[in-house]
Structures are given as C-alpha cells and as structure tokens.
Amino acid sequence: MATNVAVIQFPGTNCEMDVVEAVRSLGADAEIFFHDSADLGNADAVIISGGFAHGDYLRPGAIARFSPVMDATVSLAKSGAPVVGICNGFQVLAESHLLPGALQKNAGLKFRCGTATLRVETNNSCITNQLEVGQELQIPINHFEGNYTCSAEVLEELQAEDRIVLRYVENPNGSVDDIAGICNAERNVVGLMPHPERACHPLLGSIDGVAVLASVLAAAGATVG
C-alpha cells in the first residue's frame, strides 16, 4: 500500500504542486488539504509547502498557525508521524510551537534565491534517514525571512541533542550556527528553509532532494508498520 502524504495549502501557498509532483514521482500518494480542513484523512505524513501563507501579513506563519488544519497536523505529529515544513512551512511550524526558535529577515535585508550547499549533520531524523552524516547536498533556497534565530539556551539544547539536521556550508541568510533545518526532540517534526522538492529531477540541476523526500516516506512507512 502506498504511503499517503498530506500537502498543506494556505492562502498564498505556491509550492504545493511541486511537492505533490516530487512525492508522487517517488511512488507515494499525495493529496492537497486546504487550510480549513478539520482532518487529514488517512495521511501517513504531512508536508507544509512553501509560499506566503496569508500573504505573510503580521509575521510569516503567524496567522496560519490558527488554521483548522494545524490542529490535525499537531495531532498527527504527536502520534509520531513525520511532519515536515519547507520554507514558509518551517515558519508555520515555528509559529505553531512544534519547533523552537523563529525565522527573521535575512542578514542584510536581502531576498536570497539560488542553490545552497547543505551539510547533513544527523541521519536520525525524518528527512535524513536515507543520507549520510557529512554528506553535502545542492538544494535551492528562495526566501527573505529564513534567518533562523533562537535563545542561547535553545541553541545549546539543539546542539546537545543532535537536533540540528542540516547546516549551510556557506551561510546565505545569517542563521545562527549556520542552521538550515532542525527537528523536534522526538525527531519526527522537521523544518528546513531549502526546497528539496525543487531538486528532484536532473533538468532542475540537482536530484539531491530525492533522498530527503525518500527519507520522509521511509519514516512514514516505519511509523505505519
């Protein structure tokens, strides 16, 4: 039976079809759920895609956290299922307190769009279980508020618990400790600013995103099993 992935769409989301295409290319089923959905059906995993949820008014993700779909997402996360937020999705997870810290405007107040080199810091997460520690990935970024920040205490906790999943080799946005992605203590909720769904076909310049999304499906399969 194919893994079922719920792809969350908010007003202003613009990457949902990219995620659906990438997930389906790996043999999984993917269905889009609008932000007013009260449940996620038979989803085995959730991916919150990028864009500008509610126009990013107030703060990115600050309004989206109150959408009905987030109650269902939180419940699924608490069950141990993989929940992944990409770019704006990472911001939503932080605003929803599923992940610590916050995303602020990039250093220099510059929009960053290009390919970033990422280093895998742990393979004990729902997006890196098919990767090797130290492996470098070429993954696109596209954001203005991707500068991850947190208190010194939270940073020490993330470091001590091996919860920094990905780091930038060359930091494009000023994120503390070069952080590109983090996970929760249970390791099934991950937020990352780069877009793995945009690195799943040779014509896009990289297929390094394939193993990232394949990790999500593997984690979902292990949870269901």
Order of helices and strands: EHEEHEHEEEEHEEEH
Kindly name the structural category: alpha/beta
The major beta sheet can be summarized as: 9 strands, mixed
Low-pLDDT parts are none
**Number of self-contained structural domains:** 1
| Dominant shape | globular
Strand order of the largest sheet: 2-1-3-4-11-10-9-6-7
The quaternary state of the protein chains shown equals single chain
Per CATH, the architecture is 3-Layer(aba) Sandwich
Query: What is the beta-strand fraction?
Result: 25-35%
CATH class: Alpha Beta
Average pLDDT over all residues: 96
Q: In a nutshell, what does this entry contain?
A:
With 225 residues, the chain is an alpha/beta fold. It has 5 helices and 11 strands.
Notes on the protein architecture:
The chain is of the alpha/beta class and 225 residues long. It has one domain: Rossmann fold (3-Layer(aba) Sandwich). The protein has five helices and eleven strands, in the order βαββαβαββββαβββα. It has helices at 16-25, 68-78, 88-95, 152-160, 209-224; strands spanning 4-9, 29-34, 45-48, 83-86, 102-104, 112-120, 136-143, 147-149, 164-168, 179-183, 189-192. The strands form two sheets. The protein has a nine-stranded mixed β-sheet with strand order 2-1-3-4-11-10-9-6-7, sandwiched between helices. It has a two-stranded antiparallel ribbon with strand order 5-8.
List the helices and strands and how they pair.
Layout: E1 4-9, H1 16-25, E2 29-34, E3 45-48, H2 68-78, E4 83-86, H3 88-95, E5 102-104, E6 112-120, E7 136-143, E8 147-149, H4 152-160, E9 164-168, E10 179-183, E11 189-192, H5 209-224
